[in-house]
Amino acid sequence: MAHRVCQVPSSITLESMSSLDIRESLKIKMADLALIRSSNLSEQLGYQFIAAENCSKHEDLQKTVSVIQLYLVVLRNSISSTVAENLWKLINKYIRLAPGNEADEELYKSMLDLCVTCIRFSQQQAMDGLSYALETDHHHSFHLLLHDRQIPLDKLFLICQCIMQLLSNELNDDTMNWYGKIFMQLSTLAKTHFELRQLQHVRCMLCIMRFVSERNLKLSKPQLMRFTLSALSLVFTKAQAAGYNRSMLSELEQFELAYSDMPPDKEDIAKDGKQHFESNKEQAVSRYIDIDFSDYSDGNKQTPNHAIQATNAAIIIFHRLDQLFDCYYLPKTSNFLEHPVVGHVQVCEALGGLLKVSPWAVKAAGQTKLLAKVVHILDDFLNDEKIGNAAVYVKRVGPHKAHSIIGNLLVLINMLSQWHSSPTSDIIQTSMATSIAKILIRIWPWLSHSYQLKKVTVQLIMFLTEHSFEMCKQISLLQSGHAQSLLHLMARVADFETTKKEIPNKEPSLNMVPALRVMVNCCCCVEGRQSLSKMNLLDMFDTILPANPGPTHPKVRPPVLIAWLGFWEVFSRYDVGGKACHLQSLINTIRRNPPLSRKRILCLRILRNMCFFNGNRPRLVELADFINLLRDILEQKVQKAPTSEKNALHSFEEHRLAVLMLWKLFGFGAKYKGMLRGTKLFKLLIGLRVEMSVVFSETVNKYTGVHYASDLAKLLEKLMESMRQ
């Protein structure tokens, strides 16, 4: 009856009910009214604002905020506009200014959390209020705290959540200017945190930038250029050089910069204005359509030809950088005798970084023939009669005069190195591979005048051969007018860097590692293997892997020896490199190193490769130290369960290699089968086969999860089958 008379619970009063002509027993009492009021959540929420206004302690106010959060969970967005307005006033009162002490900090974070909840429930007063505050209040705590490089991650995360929820839920308002301001602000701050290695801070900021970039940023041309060059040159380049986090870079690549964000400049439309991009949309941009971001960031499942709606920003950024590259490297005007300006460095760093991480940009670079342009620039430099031969030029003008040439070469070679470190940048055209090989061998004399240029060039050749069969072929061949191939020069680098005397207190060079990797890559082609076989490269192991090292032998650092063993392991897979040699050195190295260590496994694999060539069999089966080594390997205990021996191994890799070698040596031909039968080694093989077959026949396999267990069991079966035939 009270509801029918007063319509809504908030209007029910004792006075309104006392005037009704009904029995006294039907009229509500004070206790009834209290119960009604207490069950009215909206009214109770209003009382919490009064309580909040009357709080004199931070702790009490935080408790009140927690209670308000509970009410919002129940009411969600069904609160009245008056309550919503009061709620925003309470939040704004405490988040407008940055906290000044520890107590303020906790209260501030509580209010941020409350703000996130309000915006998540699409409360219009909170969304409009925060958007207006960010637009008009340049001293708002969000602006100030985002500039604080010491901001704690939890506070930054809450601020980011507020902004991202706001951008996700509010309608796009083209009148707002804070979108572009905060975008540029965050692009600068992200770099600052990256330099401090605060990568989680960077990720938070990139997430906001991704959301805000969907709005009309109203960026001027200088702002857009500054962002393109500065952000890409630093973030991309530094990220990849320090073991970048793929998902973080994917965030940066996923910006969707609307065409409206590229303001036209009627005086310079042909270069990089909005109308230029729109008029060339069919030719330059629309070929590359954006992918589903969730799929792309999850393992790069999509290809650049997969068609969905929005334009990928990496394509737009690449075309702007490509235009800037053309401006700085105008045809026939590049002068390597002048030092490269900041623009040269920034454009090339940005292009290299972008092409490293974006297959979309690589595809676009193929369309604009960027690689051909770089090759042409380097060719013009090498044909410049004012410079000529490197040795003659440096002798004529002095080493200091060559700094500008070295600087210009470094800028371009470094860009190519970053670019071709990506597996999507493989070179498949024979003509282009030939041109690059010729350019690099002509540049080679300049490398003796700069350690850094030599380092970057060797890395570039490593990346080129890593992903391109054509490059492996071309650098293995002699180019006209040259006495040595690039591959031969790589072998010389590896030899020189390995045997040179190290300078005390100076960081040792590891240039031989990428050089050896080039040699490994070139084993894939006949031309490379033939060239390597003529160099007698395995003689190096007399120096770095002597059978009985003495005090006079030079000490070789582990990374150097492992790099050389890695080359030998690949080279020995082929007949030109599989000859049995340095056997005692390999056996002794295996004995000296712990089981499953990298050095030991490489030596075992080299011996395995030798066993595959029939010409090595007579020598290997008669070598007692080798057969004893295989027996000792098979006697090693492998851990079956967590409670097994502490010294037991966790993998059957060495057992697998040993059995494979024994099968290839003794499993074919009556003579060799007879040599193995009746020996302790054969009995050991039988026992191992029985153990593996019993284990694999059990319901609960004791070797579940032990590496190479299944492979070992199959090899033992093949060996025994061969012995029965």
Automatic annotation (TrEMBL):
One annotated GO biological process: centriole replication
InterPro entries xref list: ARM-type_fold (IPR016024), Rotatin (IPR030791)
One GO cellular component term: ring centriole
Coiled coil segments of this chain: none
This protein's name: GM21364
Taxonomic path: Eukaryota, Metazoa, Ecdysozoa, Arthropoda, Hexapoda
Gene: Dsec\GM21364
